Amino acid sequence: MATPVIMPRQGQSVESCIITAWNKKVGDTVAEGDILFSYETDKSAFDEPAQVSGTILAILANDGDVVPCLDTVCYIGEAGEDISALVKADAPAAAAPAAEEKKEEAPAAAAAPAAAPAVATKAEGDMIRISPRAKNLALQSGVDMTKVVPTGPHGRIIERDINAALDAGFVANAAAVEAFLAGNPIVTEEEAPAAAAPAAAAPVADDVLAYTEEPMTGIRKVISRQMHASLSEMAQLTLNSSFDATAMMNFRATLKANGEAMGLGKISLNDMVLYAVSRTLLNHPTINANLVGENFRLFKHANIGMAVDTERGLLVPTIFGAEKMSLAEISAAAKGAAAKARDGKLSPDEMSGGSFTVTNLGSMGVESFTPVINPPQTAILGVCAITQRVRADGTTYPAMGLSLTFDHRAVDGAPAARFLADLCKALENFGLLLAK
Amino acid sequence: MPKSQYVDPGKVFVPGSITFTDIPSCQYKKTLAQEKKIYTKDDFLRIYRDMRIIREFETMLNDIKVKSEYNGIKYNNPGPAHLSIGQEASAVGEAYCLDINDFTFGSHRSHGEILAKGLSSIHKLDDAELYDIMKDFFGGDILKVVEGKQEKAGDVRDLAIDFLLYGALAEIFARTTGFNRGLGGSMHAFFIPFGIFPNNAIVGGAAPVALGAALYKRANHKKGIVIANSGDGATGRGPVLEALNMSAMRQITELWGMDGKYSSDGMPILFNVFNNFYGMGGQTQGETMAYDSPARLGAGFNVAQLHAERVNGYDPLAVIDATTRKKELLLAGKGPALLEVATYRISGHSPSDSSTYRTAEEIEAWKAACPIAAYRAKMVKGGIATDEEFAAIEESIVRRMEKICKLAIDDELSPRMDLDKDPAMISSLMFSNNSVKSMDPTREPEVLMPKEENPRVKQLATKARYAYDEKGAAIPKIKLFGVRDAIFESILDKFYEDPTTIAYGEDNRDWGGAFAVYRGLTEALPYHRFFNSPISESAIVGSAVGYAMAGGRAIVELMYADFIGCAGDEIFNQLSKWQSMSAGILKMPVVIRVSVGSKYGAQHSQDWTALTAHIPGLKVCFPSTPYDAKGLMNAALAGTDPVIFFESQRIYDKGEEFHKEGVPTEYYEVPFGEPDVKREGKDVTILTIGAVLYRAMDAAKILEEKYGISAEVIDTRSIVPFNYEKVLESVKKTGRIIIVGDAVDRNSVMRDMASNIAEMAFDYLDAPPVVFGSRNWITPAFELEKYFFPQADGIVDVICQKIMPIAGHVCTINESEIEHIERNKKGI
Q: Which of A133, A201, B368, B738 is deepest in the core (most CB within 10 A)?
């Protein structure tokens, strides 16, 4: 009967060894004590002496093979002895790759109560628990805090909760922001810190597909959501018209020439348009309105939003009660609001409560466009460039274009056109308008 | 366990006796006539002068402490003054035969030793050497103060005495013109160019450090001897006894010669015990120690009984005679030696000592035996010199001391560090941050074979240096180049590059280290570069400190990190502090390898990174991949700062799973302080310390695959220094961070990092930084470890409970706030 020689186990933690060299080959005769092969663990090297004398009948692992401890590596017996049955039984084990350390299966532990998703809107008392990161995002994005469901530990509002509210379209109104601020006295900062500088991916040389990926800023995200909501939820269409701006331009020339001394030199064409709008709006209640659900909010004052292009994106500060302001006051308010917008110093209050919006691309030569309504308002006026037009008699005049987008859900085409016509008339007769 | 030393049962049990020889006590018997043949009149007078200088120096300090005035010079010194008035003959007698190649180390009562050694060195150096030393030291800052003010114009030795006294006093008064810029102070003053090595405020602290300097001389074939001075009280300390044993360990004479190939000389160190009979107030002779005389210790250590003897420390000539004999013995290769110099401290332990522990009669009796007065009387009586000559010497010493005192308290000439003007002055001295490939490029390293013939090197050549094959399949562990191989490769390279590099610790040679890191080093290195130390952690680390002070690079191993406690003083007070306390004069290129255990229970499984990271002056790292282990070890072995190099026994066999190019065979460094992003993610950051990295990677996988949460895993790699920038960048991105490690949670490095991250990234956080370490328990048995060490599932649980609840996740551990309040209430 042949004797199997096994790979010894050199220590509890050793699971397999590597054969470094065979001193014998199949057919060799060995005496007890002869070194059969050398092997090593990850810590030490050993020589394996033969325990019996005889002939090597089979070798099951070669130099460099990793052999699990206690597996058979060779057989010693009588020359010519048939060991095929034994070798077959061992074959799979010898051929199998070294067993890697098995990961211990953790016994199923008694399940402790899982932290259930939070449903409460607020934790104990009236204190709002919110992480600094979530708070920053909320302030930047103007999310409606009353709509945020906290899901963090201890009813804490965490970043994902703000994102969920934004995804649901819960953008703040002034009251919500105020409530939020009042409920969380810590929030006093005028401006949320700028978002972390995005890490620009290293450009790959000669790669035409190279680009840098930059996350949206908070303001961009708000604009993105609002504009998309605006176009997807409203029935918007645009009317284009123009008027003779000769009177306006003359008045402007007078201001430039003589108004300086009276402090009126800085009044712009856009200020005049705002002025005309403020005097026209209240005669068209559905244009000076918000549509919230199925209700109109018909404003008693002309709260005109003014689109301002800033480095951080489009901001729309509101000039409240413009119908009561003089042209000079409107001009000053517009300039003040624009400056604040550019400096990033507008409070959420100053950017909400608008009943109508004026946007101006005329200064950049745009002759006509389709402004997008600032929800939940019902209309927006685009101010276009002044171009020279020819009268029937062949003379030319400066014509300023106006593009009015309105929400057909709230206003029909005729009343919208009537508002536009009234506005054109007022602007064409700017001197008379001022006298009113 | 050298196989050449057969432990024979046939001999062990043979009946017989262990014999001793008599230890001589105060047997100096030379007559003045005999002494006159040895010493010239100048020698006799110089011995007097040196004793008298020390007496005056300490009298001045005592007066300033007690009366805030010395000879009309008013000054207040709030610092310590441990005086040795009465012991002057012992100090001068010891220093007499020493030169600058002989190094002395001392205790906290070493003003006398410093001055005596300095005066002896000044006498032996020629003018040009002396002047160069003074001119080169701190760019001549000290010389500038004293130059041109000496009594004997043009006398360089006279100038050097002023220099010595001023440098020491300015140091004691914490002035930037002191020998160590005022950062060492009274108990740590020293001056390397005169062979005066640091004294030590820790009783007994200097003994193992001095052993290290002797080891440096022994292993690098340097001239001179080393003297470890201590008081009798210090002989009660373990590190002193460890140093006595290790210095005499038998392998030095039995094995280090390697059959005639190398020297088999004994360790060239003299342990010199100034026995003043009191350790502070405890009387060693009759009260606190078992011995009647410290010289008796010699009998316990080796067959030569350390050549121990007691000598009369009140007779400078007896001490000179004894020290000279011991020095000859050491130079003849018969060290180590032990000398007890019996002496007495007339002054108190410190100025606040009211001597409640001894009688006035005892003090008076010793005052009456004053060694200086007795010596002077003997000289006058023997006709060596007249009393007037001695009086003149005394007078000039007082004049000199008044001058030096005035200079040292002059705020303009001797300013203190201006930390208003230069707030970084001390910061800049905490680490030397140099890169030195070889501490002695003039010599070839002594090795036993070419590197490429080393069996381990050959074996490693066959290993896979990346854990996955081309198809991405995992390669079996046993075929991988693992963490232990990476550490070995770095260290072996250094041994072939730097001739001063030595390594030792328990079971390093033959065994190859308990965890087989050093397998292959035995074949490569002679004994004096790589040996087994006794189980003496204090002596292991302390000697490494001294070895580095003397100019070499040492790698010592403590086997288990848990043994850090056994080398507490050496790591916390010696290794960490000498670079800065020396104002950057000393460098400390020492790597202490410590291994964090697993499966071995409460005293063999602790991650003690927090203990070492807490001590200013130590660099601490804990790599967990082969790439990082080799790179950090290379950086540690190129640096000149002390590094506590943590390793984990869980992962010695881990191959490189992160660095796709594999572990480079060539040299590279991983810079200290830079964490590494091991996995990128965007929702939560997992910051890991040590081997827990792999469990954090598993947790990241669970988070990703089960819950769609993308985790970023950052490996700290280093702990001190640590650059937070990468972590903060990650936290700004993810808003969430959990810090995990195997150390117990309380006061861990993780807690420190969490606090720093909270401060620096507050506005970006979506949850407080959360720590998940081990429980504040003892480490249980292996089978229970998962309840103690953080596991992958636990990491997910903690994120779910403390950072962001994960829908559908069922937690299995309780990490709630209530639970933590309860645990803290109970201190668990």
A: B738
